[in-house]
Amino acid sequence: MTCGCRRRPRWWRSRTALYNQGRADISAEEFLPFSDRPVQFCFPYNVAGQPAISLPLAWHSSGLADRRSAGARGRPRSMC
Amino acid sequence: MTIASAGSTRPASATVPFRGVPFLIKDVGGHERGRLHRERQPAVPGMIGIGDSNLDQLLRASGVNVLGRSNAPGIFDRRHRPENALYGNTSTPWRQGYSAGGSTGGGAAAVASGMVPIAHGSDIGGSIRIPASWCGGVGLKPSRGRVSFGPALDGGGCRPRHELRADAGRCATWRPMLDCLAIPQPGDPFVIHGRRSLSAFVGKPAPRLRIAWSAKPLMDGPVDPEVAAAVAATARLLAEMGHDVSEDSLPFDGEEANRQMLSLWFFGFDRRLEEIAARLGHHRAAHAGAGDAQDLRVLKRLRSPRLPGGARLHEQACAGRMRRVLRAP
Predict the structure, then answer these.
(1) What are the pLDDT tens digits along chain A (80 aa)?
(2) Do B97 and A11 touch (CB under 8 A)?
(3) Which residues, 6+ apart, have CB-to-CB distance to B124 below 8 Å?
(4) Which of B1, B81, B133, B259 to mutate against chain A (most A CBs within 10 Å)?
(5) B12 at A interface, C-beta within 8 A
(6) Among partner residues A55, A65, A68, which is closest to B134 by beta-carbon distance?
(7) pLDDT of residue B75
(8) Is B216 among the catalytic positions?
(9) Per-residue confidence band for B244, with pLDDT thresholds at 50, 70 and 90
(10) Alpha-carbon Rg of chain A, whole angstroms?
(11) Catalytic annotation on B133?
(12) Coil, strand or helix: which one is B154?
C-alpha cells in the first residue's frame, strides 16, 4: 500500500494553457520528471502486470481528493 | 455469475446485469464501427472505425448504454492529463481549474460528479488510478491481459488496458462488470486461466492479509507530508482490523522501473502513428490554429537528442513517423 500520487492536483496556469503541450518553455530534460515523478507509485504495477486498485480514503486539507493505492501479488487464481 | 467460455462475448448468466446503465468509454482504444476518431489531436482530421474492438462487443453484451466518449490526452501526449487542444481541459469536479488527473480524467470526473455510475478507462502507467486519486473515486487496474485488448493493435494495443472505475459509493458495480469483461477472445496473446468471479466474494469476510506499506518516494521529489501521514494512518487502521501490517519499501529502483515503463508506453506507438499516417495518406490536415503549433512543439521535444537512453530510442523512433503525419520539417 502506498500513496496514490505524491501530491494533490495543481491549478492550470490559464484556461488555455495545457499542462504539457502548451508549455514551450519546458525542455526535454525537464519533461520526464515533469511527467512521471508525480505518478511514481503507479507505474511499477504496470511494469509487473499486477492488479492494482486506488481507493479514496482521505481528503487533503486543500479540500481536494486524496487516496491510497494498493497492489496485489499476481496469482494463478487471482480475482482481478 | 460464472465466466463464459473463451470466444463468447456473453456472460454465462442469462441475465444482462447492466441493461440500460449509462456508461462512458474512454476516447482511447475501444473502437466502435462507424464512430469518428480524432485521437484528440487537431492534426488528425478524423478516422472512421472499421470494426468493433473486443471490448466494445463485451460492453454491449453487458447491456450498458454507452452515452459517449470521455476526454483524455492527445495521442501524441505522454502526460497523464485529460488536456488537449481539440476538446479542452477536464477539471476535477471538486474544484474547477484543478486537473482531474489522467489520462482517464474524463471518465473519472464523470463518475465522481454523478454523471454515470461506472466508466471505462485504460491504464498503462497509472491512467486509471491517478484520476481516481484526484477525483475521489475507485479505480481498478486488473492484471495484464485480464481484459481483451484486440483484435487490432490500434484497438487498444498490447498494453494492460481496459480497466474500470466507479465512485466510492457504488464500488460494488465494478465487480460484476469485470465478470462481464474478463472473457478471453480470439487473438489474445495470452489468457489468464482460472479467474474466480469477484461477485462470489461479495459479502464474505476478508481473510487476514499480509500488507506492506510505504510512503517513501521511489523517485526524486518529496511526498506531500499530509499524503504520507494519511498512508500511515490507513496502515494503523488496517493493523487494528487484525491484518499483518508492516512498513517496508518497494524492492526496486524507481528510476529503472521508469525506464522499463517507457518501453511499455511506447510499445506499438510508432505503429499507431503509421496507421494514422496511412489512413490520412500522409497528408497533414488543413487545420489552422493553436493546435498545430502545439503538435509541432511536441514533435520538437520528441526529436531532442538529450532525452535519457531508453526514452530517446523510443521517442526518436516515433519522431520520423510524426514528421510524416504532421508534415513537419
Answers:
(1) 888 776 666 655 444 444 443 344 555 445 555 566 667 788 888 878 888 888 887 788 777 766 556 666 555 455 66
(2) yes
(3) A46, B159, B160, B161, B264, B265
(4) B133
(5) no
(6) A65
(7) 66
(8) no
(9) very high
(10) 16
(11) no
(12) helix
Q: Are B100 and B108 in contact (CB under 8 A)?
A: yes
A interface test, pick of B96, B129, B316 with most A CB neighbours within 10 Å: B129
CB contact under 8 A, B136 and A67: yes
Q: Which residues of chain A make contact with B143, given a CB cutoff of 8 A?
A: 49-51, 74, 78, 80
Whole-number Å distance between alpha carbons of A57 and B169: 12
Nearest-angstrom CA–CA distance, B83 and B73 = 5
**Which H or E run includes B84?**
strand B83-84
Chain A residues touching B250 at Cβ < 8 A: 2, 44
Percent of chain B with pLDDT over 90: 11
SS3 B44: coil
pLDDT level of residue B246 (50, 70, 90 thresholds): very high
Peptide bond into B142 cis (omega under 30): no
Which CATH number, 3.30.499.10, 3.40.718.10, 3.90.1300.10, 3.60.70.12, labels domain B22-327?
3.90.1300.10
Q: What are phi and psi of B212, to 5 degrees?
A: -100, 140
Residue B70 annotated in active site? no
H or E stretch at B164:
strand B163-167
Q: Which three cell numbers, joined as nine digits, stand for B61?
A: 453484451
Q: Is B69 helix (H, G, I), strand (E, B) or coil?
A: strand
- Residue A52: enclosing H or E segment and its boundaries? strand A52-59
Handedness of CA A49, A53, A59, A63 (dihedral sign): positive
User: Are B128 and B139 contacting, i.e. CB atoms less than 8 angstroms apart?
Assistant: yes
Q: What is the mean pLDDT of residues B309-318?
A: 47
pLDDT 10s digits, B249-301: 877 777 777 766 766 666 666 566 656 656 655 444 333 333 444 444 554 55
Mean pLDDT of all residues belonging to chain B = 71
**A25 close to B (CB below 8 A):** no
